[in-house]
Amino acid sequence: MARLLARIMAAQDGWARPLGDFNHRWLSAVFRPFRPIKDLLSGTWLGHPLHSASTDVPVGALLVSVILDLLNQPTAADVALLATVLFMLAAALSGAADYVDTDGAARVRATLHSTLMVVALVILVISLVLRAGGPADRMVPVVLSLVGFLIVSAGAFVGGEVVYAFGNMVSRHAFRGPGTKWIPLDSGDLTDLSALPLATPTRARAGINDLVLVRIGVTVHALHAVCAHAGGPLPQGKIVDGCIECPWHGSRFRLDNGQVTQGPALYDQPVYELRAAEGGGYEVRRAAT
User: Fold this and answer.
1) Which of 30, 178, 185, 277 has a beta carbon 3.0–4.6 Å from 288's, enabling a disulfide?
2) Which residues neighbour 251 within 8 Å (Cβ) at sequence distance 6 or greater?
3) Does residue 178 belong to any structural domain of this protein?
4) Which domain holds residue 268?
5) What are 206-249's pLDDT values in tens digits?
6) What is the CATH number of the domain that holds 221?
């Protein structure tokens, strides 16, 4: 079953890829002047993707509406369907904000997800309009709701694929715990960190981890080099107002504690304690959060 579903989704890539690229261009243009609103819709303030949280309400409300239709409770079913449509619109806004920062194969799959949800929304709106006329025979609007529910279920499955298979909007450091041991810092030919270029991200390495070093005055800050949002290379970023900005999507993290100050990142960036080693050179340890 899993392979069959994977083949069905992959078969849609031919049309989903160009449509996704088109949608990405116009949505980016829409959200670009409204960065704080986009961060609000992404869930940066919440520390959790707002879209995944907001989708639970319409899916649940639609299921309730379908059950009430089957139990011949028309008024309650219509109210639940109205709630479904309203919350689907709200979820679409947060989804669009995430879509702007979704790239590659994840964007292709997200395009399939959004297309299914838009089709379902149109069908449910038609059902709602027909219900508003108070028809004696409710067969057509009820069937439309059932069809919409099936499409929403398919869309939710694809949405899960975007998150769980492609890791979209998932912290890139979810399994990195605080350090317990000091690890030698490999800064290449640079043996004196006070000689680091001022306010210039510089790549370094500690064991298996890539780090980015930034000197501000006499203080050298060390953060993980991989952006928590989508894995962007922070050593290629820039310093803005005491923060390092990711070159891919513009997420910003405070140099002193790694806290996210601008989305689309939802999670703080790991920071490292830095000290001189007894035998010369430097060593680092991931700081506790």
Assistant:
1) 178
2) 227, 228, 229, 232, 245, 260, 262, 263, 264, 265
3) no
4) 183-286
5) 988 999 999 999 999 999 999 999 999 999 999 999 999 999 99
6) 2.102.10.10
Give the closest residue to 208 by CA, choosing from 276, 286, 287.
Answer: 286
Q: Say how many domains are in the chain.
A: 2
Evaluate whether residue 171 is within a structural domain: no
86-144: pLDDT as tens digits:
999 999 999 999 999 999 999 999 999 999 999 999 999 999 999 998 888 899 999 99
DSSP for residue 171 = -
Rounded distance between C-alpha atoms, residue 126 and residue 4, angstroms: 31
Q: Is pLDDT at 189 greater than 80 in this prediction?
A: no
Taking the model in full, what pTM does it have?
A: 0.86
CA 18/CA 15 separation, integer angstroms: 6
Looking at the fold, whether 118 and 7 belong to one and the same domain comes out as yes
What amino acid is encoded at 164 in this protein? Y
Give the H/E segment covering residue 273: strand 271-276
For 99-245, where are the E strands, in sequence order?
A: 183-184, 202-206, 209-216, 219-224, 238-240, 243-245
Peptide bond into 264 cis (omega under 30): yes
Q: What is the pLDDT of residues 23-70, one digit of tens each?
A: 999 999 999 999 999 999 999 998 889 998 899 999 999 999 999 999
Question: Do residues 130 and 223 share a domain?
Answer: no
Beta bridge partners of 220: 215
232 within domain boundaries: yes
Asked if 116 and 158 sit in the same domain, the reply is: yes
